[in-house]
Amino acid sequence: MHVLVLGATGNLGSRLLSALLQRGHTVSAFVRDPAKLSSSLTPHLTSIETGDARKATEIKGAVLRTKCDAIVNTAGLAAAAPWGHSDLPAIVDAVIAAALETGRERGSPLRVWLLGGVKFFPEHRGTWAKLQSLPPNSMLWSILCPGEMRPLSPVTYPLASAASAENIVAQASTPPAWTGRFHQVVGYATKLEHCADFIAGDLAEGAGSQWVGRKVGVRAR
Question: Taking every annotated instance into account, which residue ranges of this chain make up the domain NAD(P)-binding (predicted)?
Fold first, then answer.
């Protein structure tokens, strides 16, 4: 599968590039500043697309140029405080618009992974509401909802040898073993590399993925 990664210079995005390459995907990066990409990764990328992830036209242009089959958005963070500013809602809107338009033009929906979280930020609730409002089969979306993600190692290619989706447990709709108590959030820390490998492995399933149309909670095994 040809995958376009938004936020490819970030903590998760950079490791996702490596995980996708290791899993045999064709990979393009969508970034504002190509100079920030890891030098160990750039020789292996099919293309480096420069643009603003808040602009649907720029994302769609990259999708059409690369002829990608899937988009993974790791760009944008929820605001740490209720009064803070976050670009995440604008980025999610742009990704959804670009994916929907491309799907309509191609006659088949695009595979899309978005990032949410266990914590109850308004931005994540907004992302979920937007996905729920989409027409059926208009976009093959999934949303990963981890707790805190910590690095296993510096960004490398190949990915750290210990990185594997087998090191996490995934469950749709609610986090694994969740009781509804907010203090549980601290127990849902995972490694960036394990989450990256989880997404990369799932994309190999294409439209047949069990996570299409689902909110996916994860925790360390």
Answer: 7-106
How many Cβ atoms are within 10 Å of 40's Cβ, its own excluded? 15
Residue type, 131: L
Q: State residue 152 phi and psi, 5-degree precision.
A: -85, -35
Q: Which residues have CB under 8 Å from 32's CB, separation 6+?
A: 50, 51, 52, 53
* Backbone φ/ψ region at 206: left (φ over 0), alpha (ψ -120 to 50), beta: left
Which tens digits make up the pLDDT trace of 164-216? 999 999 999 776 666 555 545 556 789 999 999 999 999 999 999 999 999 99
**d(C-alpha 112, C-alpha 143), whole Å:** 8
3-class SS at 63? Answer: helix
Peptide bond into 158 cis (omega under 30): yes
pLDDT tens digit sequence for 114-155: 998 765 665 667 788 999 999 999 999 999 988 889 999 999
Mean pLDDT on 43-52: 98
Q: Which domains does the chain have, with CATH numbers?
A: 2-220 (3.40.50.720)
Q: Please choose, from the candidates 146, 117, 158, the residue with its C-alpha nearest in 3D space to the C-alpha of residue 220.
A: 146
Tokens 């266990």: give the residue.
118
Q: From CA 129, how far away is CA 157, in angstroms rounded?
A: 36
